[in-house]
Amino acid sequence: MAAKNNLVEALKLNFGFDTFKGNQEAIIRNLLDGKDTFVLMPTGGGKSLCYQLPSLMLDGTAIVISPLIALMKNQVDAMRNFSEEDGVAHFINSSLNKAAIDQVKSDILCGKTKLLYVAPESLTKEENIEFLKQVNISFYAVDEAHCISEWGHDFRPEYRRIRPIINEIGYKPVIALTATATPKVQHDIQKNLGMIDAAVFKSSFNRPNLYYEVRPKTSNVDKDIIKYIKQQEGKSGIIYCLSRKKVEELAELLCVNGIKALPYHAGMDSATRSENQDAFLLEKVDVIVATIAFGMGIDKPDVRYVIHYDIPKSLEGYYQETGRAGRDGGEGQCLTFYINKDLQKLEKFMQGKPIAEQEIGKQLLMETAAYAESSLCRRKLLLHYFGEEYKGDNCGNCDNCLNPKKQVEAKDLLCAVIETVIALKEEFKTEYVIDVIMGKKTNQISAYRHDELEVFGCGQTEDDKTWNAVIRQALIAGYLVKEIENYGLLKVTEEGKSFLNKPQPFKIVKDTDFEEMEEEIPIKGGASCAVDPELFSILKDLRKKMAKRLELPPYIIFQDPSLEAMATTYPITLEELQNIPGVGAGKAKRYGEEFIKVIKLHVDENEIERPEDLRVRTIANKSKLKVSIIQAIDRKIALDELAESKDLDFDELLDEVEAIVYSGTKINIDYFLREIMEDDHIEEIFEYFKESESDSLEEAINEFGMDYTEEEIRLIRIKFLSEMGN
Which of the four pLDDT bands, split at 50, 70 and 90, describes residue 620? Predict the structure, then answer.
């Protein structure tokens, strides 16, 4: 093979490229010199080449340890395309039968194979260790090396055993590669692999071509996604969901709406998974709806958008997944739907895990919430998280920079924060510091007697969100530092101490309040989101008149998002109307005639061409779950027992029941209400909804104060909606 000096020649000969990207050449030279090498390179930066080219240039076989079967297959196929010899690259994992494994071993022993991909689980098998002891190994590559660290977003305990196994097989240089690692994770990887002295090659984590946006996750999220994808016709996209159930549901919903989409998750059999992955790579479908099991190492350069239906558990996960977009340097839109309730659910899932693991998980979730809610440049926040400083103040390619919020002076607030951190001897986390500033007498604060400090309650005029924003932006400005290893304790830097002695102007932007937006969007969204504001206004008037005639609150007939959808897709038959979100067959029959008459008249008078293809269709049998809930309620099964049998939280069951009554199905939950509430209490809440202008839960909770629980109010609202509207 080509000598070391002829690296560019070897690159051209084997891969057809004329030049290296970024640090690739320096990394490869270091490895060819037999030295341990640590590579931090963002997705799309060309990590694989850093071990593929040296493997072809050195004697023997390079062992690549990788956690993902999909990635192995993908890379082996790619290597075979570059070579005349199929045996040049192989993998060993659980998907191969004995005959296939024997063939792999034969190719390796006769010197054909330059690259062998191994899953960490396969590496730990005694028979494989014994086999590899006979092989002339050129070096070891540990791909997706963040899997070693408990602080990484994808910790795999079996990765912790890699070093002892390498020592057993026989020492050779190690190259560890990852696309995401905070300084803490990087140190963890090097320590665990016994390569603290390795040369570290760190590329910038900035992907200037990626556009980042976080939107509030409202009840319209499915419709928002369908509209968005319809505007991206012919482009490839990935949608990430946290649960397998949501993956299946959303993929089906997209298909029903004329979008070529397939699901992908670890619960599917491997043949179907591979077929779906290949269909996406070969562009037989435009969209893959997946859990994070998908996309690791899938080298599709022209993914144009990545949508997060649920926010990931960590910023590393987010960076890795959004990094699948725009690998070719072209357009890449990263759209995330966020509501804090999702993070609370993730925190619930962690219960039962060891305390240390829960602490780590909680901190990672807090970093994610901070990123989502902050109004700062998203690029600046992301890069700061990975230990890199972004110099500019406005990247011009994220939602916060394109719609900047007004800055406010926070010099005095920062001084208060620094004084409090010092008064607490730099031994507490963000939440605790804020509790002290705001004068909250928690058990912990009383136990430490921190309510006796001079700083206690010095910031009661501001809210939690403002203090969070001050601390976050002080961390980025370098006045404070967070000790990650030590559960995120806040410390004051030298710059912070200087600031306290001689305060300078310090401007901040306040965080976005997603909870407020959750309430606002459906209400405000009506006219502004409808394609035809004139029709929307006509439909609202009709709803008002009908409500007056039937003595019902208007929202009982159709909610604003349903009217908005009508003013977008112009349904003119009852069948089309019942495909509108929130309508359903019951409501269409009861109230629909007058609405479709008005819409038809409007369409004819204005010679409107109806966008039939834009119609958001619902799945006919949208959910077996909903049918089984209706049947169970008919059989008078207690709702708490029903939730348990369906493996749902009680509030998740109420979400489903609300959706059932909003779409026009009548149900009777009196049997359950009488078990848990007094008749006069039921009547009081029922009367409130009868007279109320809105079905807002928040307004009802404010009205009843501490008298009733949120669950009780929701249950009566369900009874009211069902009896009055259906």
Answer: very low
Q: Are 638 and 674 contacting, i.e. CB atoms less than 8 angstroms apart?
A: no
Buried b (16+ CB within 10 A) or exposed e, 22-53: ebbbebbbbbbeebbbbbbbbbbbbbbbbbbb
**Per-position b or e across 674-686, b if 16+ CB within 10 A of its CB:** eeebeeebbeebb
What's the distance, CA 602 to chain centroid? 41
Cross-strand bridge partners of residue 236 = 303
H or E stretch at 236: strand 236-240
CATH of the domain at 446: 1.10.10.10
Query: What confidence tens digit (pLDDT) does each residue in 634-673 have?
Result: 888 889 888 888 778 888 899 889 888 877 778 899 999 9
CA distance 167 to 153: 27
Q: Hey, which bits of 415-520 come out as E strands?
A: 480-483, 489-492, 507-509
Give the end of a domain, one of 402, 437, 452.
402
Same domain, 468 and 380: no
CA distance 505 to 557: 54
Q: List the structure tokens of 544.
A: 């008002």
What CATH number has the domain bearing residue 265? 3.40.50.300
Both 449 and 580 in one domain: the answer is: no
Domain assignment present for residue 197? The answer is yes
- Encoded amino acid at 413, one letter: L
How is residue 353 written in tokens? 């895990």
- Domain identity same for 359 and 429: no
Give the chain's domain count: 5
d(C-alpha 716, C-alpha 702), whole Å: 16
| Residue 499 domain flag | yes
Residue at 450 is within a domain: yes
d(CA 286, CA 255): 11
pLDDT greater at residue 163 or residue 604: 163
- Average predicted confidence (pLDDT) for the chain: 85
Q: Are residues 235 and 373 in the same domain?
A: yes
Q: Could you tell me the residue range of the domain that residue 426 belongs to?
A: 407-509
The Cα–Cα gap between 627 and 60 comes to 61
Do 62 and 189 sit in the same domain of this protein?
yes
Whether 390 and 438 share a structural domain: no
Report d(CA 47, CA 174) in Å as an integer: 14
Q: CATH number of the domain that 548 lies in?
A: 1.10.150.80
User: Could you tell me if 600 and 674 lie in one domain?
Assistant: no
List the CATH number of the domain containing 706.
1.10.10.1390
Question: pTM for this structure?
Answer: 0.63
Say how far apart CA 267 and CA 290 lie, in whole Å: 11
Q: What is the pLDDT of residues 424-444, one digit of tens each?
A: 999 999 999 999 999 999 999
With CA atoms as reference, report the closest residue to 56 among 122, 111, 134: 111
Q: Which amino acid is at 116?
A: L
* HSE-up of residue 466 (Cα within 13 Å, Cβ side): 18
10 Å CB burial of residue 673 (0-12, 13-18, 19+) is buried
Q: Assess if residue 149 is contained within a domain.
A: yes
Query: Helix and strand tally (H, E) in the chain?
Result: 35, 17
Q: Are residues 568 and 477 in the same domain?
A: no
- Alpha-carbon distance 315 to 707, whole Å? 40
What region does 263 belong to: left with phi over 0, alpha with psi -120 to 50, or beta? beta
Classified as helix, coil or strand, 490 is strand
Distance CA 392, CA 288 (A): 35
